[in-house]
Amino acid sequence: METAHIHRHDSEFLRLILVVCPTCGGKAQLTKLDGVTARRLVCTVCGHNRDIEPRNGYSITYPPTDNICNGLSLWLEAETRHGRLYAFNEEHLDHIAAYVASNLREMAPTRGLRNASVTSRLPLWVKQAKNRTEVLKLIDKLRSK
Ligand SMILES: [Zn+2]
């Protein structure tokens, strides 16, 4: 893996966010629309779709809150004895998995992107070597969800 891809900015993962469908509880996609703050919700299960204007504009935070966008919950989310693991989408999940597997936490992120880097903001327990097997197992489980 290229080291340049280890520390990526959160916003790279925010174009498509997987959320729980408010209608059927299935997997829905929340997509960023060009030029506006609204996001389009499309459920892959029941077909429910509508545009959502986020109350907090562009500021979707990481770690995300329970309310990722106007009451929607993340799809890729799992509770553990350490805390909660979450990813915005499959690519984000893969990124976290690669980071955890490679155990490159000592590598300094690009200056200026330190706080914005996805990996720098992962909870400490996710980064700890002793939890690696457990975290990777959890990521596998989320991936097949
Ligand atoms: Zn649905």
Explain this structure.
It is a single chain. The chain is of the alpha+beta class and 145 residues long. The chain has one domain (7-143). It is built from 3 helices and 6 strands. It has helices at residues 90-102, 124-127, 132-143; strands at 16-20, 27-32, 39-43, 49-52, 76-79, 84-87. It has a 4-stranded antiparallel β-sheet, with no helix packed on it. A two-stranded antiparallel sheet has the order 5-6. Helix 1 packs antiparallel against helix 3 (132-143). The chain binds zinc ion (ZN). Zinc ion binds next to loops.
SSE order: EEEEEEHHH
Strand order of the largest sheet: 1-2-3-4
Report low-confidence residues grouped into runs of 5 or more: 1-5, 110-115
Q: What is the overall shape?
A: globular
Q: What count of domains describes the coordinates? A: 1
The kinds of small molecule bound in this structure are:
zinc ion
Radius of gyration: 15 Å
Query: How far apart are the first and last residues' alpha carbons, in Å?
Result: 26 Å
Largest sheet: 4 strands, antiparallel
Work out the number of β strands: 6
Mean pLDDT: 80
Counting H and I runs of at least 4 residues, what is the number of helices?
A: 3
Helix content: 10-25%
Which structural class matches the secondary elements?
Answer: alpha+beta
Strand percent estimate: 15-25%
Can you give me a brief rundown of this structure?
This protein is α+β, with helices and mostly antiparallel strands and 145 residues long.
